Amino acid sequence: MKQLALDIGLASGPTLENFHAGSNAQALQHLRLAVGEAGAPRSPVPTYLWGEAGTGKSHLLRAVYEGLRAQGARAGWLDPSMRWPTAFDDRWSAVLLHDVHRYSEAQQAAAFNWFINAIDPAVGAPRWVLAAGELPPADLPLRDDLRTRLAWGHVFQLQPLAEDGRRAVLHRQAQERGMVLTDDVVDYMLSHFSRDLGSLSQLLDRLDGYALRTQRAVTIPLLKTMLQGE
Prior knowledge:
Number of helices: 8
Shape: elongated
């Protein structure tokens, strides 16, 4: 009987605690203060994060969303995959707008509606708006009224991690999965693949799954074999 490899080293989800800040410490601290404690009032001043792919925007927005949920708070979430956005919900304590540079006209209309209702609600106190995109507010390919509002509050440019930061993140993610990731494998990943941290994390996910299925140690030959079979 063939034994099944059990993935007991499941990686934890994105949190503010496991975000490797590097030169983005100011933005991280701002988000920590904004999320605060359960029941604490949130600043009504909106926040916008921008930076190239792989700078951690997705990690931070999902970490904030999960952090609010852990406190029992509800938050509205909109990203480009949601073709039919819902109406603003008065029960939300915050609104999160992800990858705004890719919004369709319908999503832009919904985002503007959410923004206005969050800042000037019919019921309750103003809500916090956290948005993210790859471009600074002035360069976003969005309708003027939404673009200008995204620039109203706190704006942070996220910087890519330096190589030592990328290495530290890959080793930490491997440790969370129960993987033994040697320096030579990390060297190979950084020299032969996109240095975008999001892409590297996805590659690590695939490598972890392949190693579990084949019940082999994570090595450069294993990585090459995996890629040749795709």
